[in-house]
Structure to design on (296 residues):
């Protein structure tokens, strides 16, 4: 039985930790939220009172936190994970964070002789609970190989994206593309409707023609054609517009530091920022349809 410390048991981490428990691991959970800890306890985790209590003697340490500042906060410094982890422990950060922070923290772990990977995920809360996440992993090949069996317990597709930080690169580029094609899909459906072509007929044609894309066929932002899509449930999230905006801001930050031009990514960020400014960023990210068709 492997002892796993799990830090950050929110919407995503709660389900992921529960799957590690189901696989027979001894999971020690720490979160700042009492509510998150209560849920972790009912899922079979041993609840502890601090990061240090969670990581003491742990073979594997997994973190699933909101942003780069939280990840740096728990890993770095005298009281941090890197300074206090058991020699030989493997560190896995599955949070979606900026690439620079990911590389800084993995570099610090490396300096201390600890193997660490960045392993952000694609797939939402339902995939975290079902153990069907996609993991995009950055780090050395040996570290990836060690992490793989544990990631397979929490996910379905596990990819080695290359060196430290490359998991975050894959995540941010994928989600920038998702934001862009979601908005493009909304524009096409809104225009079709205004020109007298109903959503279902346009879907039937475009989904088998060259406009076909994931936002259309798996997550159609116009109500009707894809029954399970949030558009048929008042755009209840799903993957909230606020989360998409977070990822687009990470993409902008990364593009600035790499001097890369992302004109459409920047436009997508500006449009999702309008959803935030309207106080509607708790809607699913496909709810940007309402901004595009003028009904927000
Ligand atoms: P969440 O806010 O529900 O959970 C984060 C948890 O971290 C909270 O319970 C919070 O109390 C805890 N936390 C914060 N600082 C802490 C600290 N110092 N020590 C211990 N616990 C601390 O967020 P989430 O939806 O679970 O997302 C987690 C990460 O996964 C984010 O980086 C997010 O971008 C990414 N992600 C989320 C989704 C999604 O659909 N929710 C999908 C893919 C990726």
């Amino acid at each position: 039985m492997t002892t796993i410390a799990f830090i950050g048991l929110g919407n995503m981490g709660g389900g992921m930790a529960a799957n590690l428990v189901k696989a027979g691991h001894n999971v020690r959970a720490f979160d700042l939220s009492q509510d998150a800890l209560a849920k972790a306890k009912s899922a079979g985790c041993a609840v502890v009172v601090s990061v240090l209590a969670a990581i003491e003697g742990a073979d594997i340490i997994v973190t699933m936190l909101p942003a780069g500042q939280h990840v740096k906060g728990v890993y770095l410094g005298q009281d941090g994970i890197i300074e206090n982890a058991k020699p030989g422990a493997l560190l896995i950060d599955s949070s979606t964070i900026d690439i620079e922070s990911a590389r800084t923290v993995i570099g610090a772990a490396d300096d201390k002789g600890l193997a660490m990977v960045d392993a952000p995920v694609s797939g939402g809360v339902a995939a975290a609970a079902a153990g069907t996440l996609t993991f995009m992993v950055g780090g050395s090949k040996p570290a990836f190989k060690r992490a793989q069996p544990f990631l397979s317990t929490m996910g379905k597709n596990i990819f080695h994206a290359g060196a430290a930080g490359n998991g975050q690169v894959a995540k941010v580029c994928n989600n920038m593309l998702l934001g862009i094609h979601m908005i493009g899909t909304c524009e096409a459906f809104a225009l079709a409707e205004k020109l007298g072509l109903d959503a279902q007929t346009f879907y039937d044609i475009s989904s088998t023609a060259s406009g076909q894309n994931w936002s259309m066929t798996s997550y159609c932002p116009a109500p009707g054609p894809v029954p399970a899509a949030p558009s048929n449930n008042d755009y209840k999230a799903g993957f909230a517009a606020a989360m998409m905006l977070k990822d687009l801001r990470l993409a902008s930050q990364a593009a600035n530091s790499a001097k890369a031009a992302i004109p459409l990514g920047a436009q997508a960020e500006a449009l999702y920022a309008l959803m935030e400014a309207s106080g509607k960023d708790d809607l699913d990210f496909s709810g940007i349809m309402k901004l595009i068709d003028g009904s927000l």
Notes: The two ends are 52 Å apart (CA to CA). The CA atoms of residues 243 and 285 lie 8 Å apart. The first helix runs from residue 11 to 22.
